Fold:
Amino acid sequence: MPTRNKQIVFESFLGKQFSDNPRAIYEYIKKEYPEYKLYWSMDKSSFSDFKEKDIQCVRRFSFKWILLMNSSKYWVSNSRLPLWIPKPKHTIYVQTWHGTPLKKLAADMNEVHMHGTNTNTYIKDFLFESNKWDFLVSPNAYSTEIFKRAFQYSNAIIESGYPRNDYLIQYKNDIYEKKKIKKAINLPLDKKVILYAPTWRDNQFYGSGKYKLDIQLNLEAMKQELGEEYIVLLRLHYLVAENLELSSFKGFVYDVSKYEEIRELYLISDLLITDYSSVFFDYANLMKPILFYVYDLEEYRDKLRGFYFNIENESPGPLVRTTKEVIEKVKSIDEVISTYRNRYNCFYEKFCNLEDGNAAKRVVETMLKK
Structure:
């Protein structure tokens, strides 16, 4: 098909969201390069989330989608595309990826425990995909080194910071933006906000791409001890397929797993609780406290994935194993901040030093020049 040089197809998390690095790049191009035709790849299950937005979207795997993928000069995605999609010679594929790595990736993994594959097949398929990328976006020098090796990637890397974090830099002190978001989610304005964002476990699944997660936090105990001062926003990973029964925690726990932009949840929260998710690298841009609830640390680190650095020595916040410890740390959060200040500063310098609010600009200028 003839190439449309000013046509771009975007996709975020397998077409399930209008979010993340692709969204930040899209918003920058829409503002600065209005002559470009921009399309969003949309999974059919997410139709209701996309339909009210002022964006051109096309159903993933439809005939129109295939035509657009074939004719577009650029693809921008933050996760892998299906193996059966060939990349035309004229197309420039920009892979933004979706996190600074703590857990091992692709060719660095010793064993793969995901449903529907095995170690050799997973790595072979991953490298087949990464060979299609023309640009890979990296948030920092640490990630660049890992990406090259784990993805066996030798094409261009844009070490720019993450475009999605431009928003955090721009709005981190904007009280009106925070209030607007809280009102949109119907959150109380007089409570502090705990964001709980755990990752998925490779060996706990319902089927391919649909993972289980047993919430190990005792939410009843947290409500009793912290409910007067805090609310909890529960944000599950996009691969986790759970319908949680939270009616008994109404007014204290809010399931925001389907809320599109986690960057807005970062902004309104006062404290992050996570485990091995890469969310803490982005959250650190705000210099707000982080607790690591790692009840299965040894199993996850030693059996499921393996880590790139010693989280016990380098984490910008305490590692806790029980709900009781979580509650104690939240109650003494000022002490936690003081204790971890120096380590947090070192962490920030290593992982967040490129984040200045202009990452999207750097990515776009580089990709369009090519």
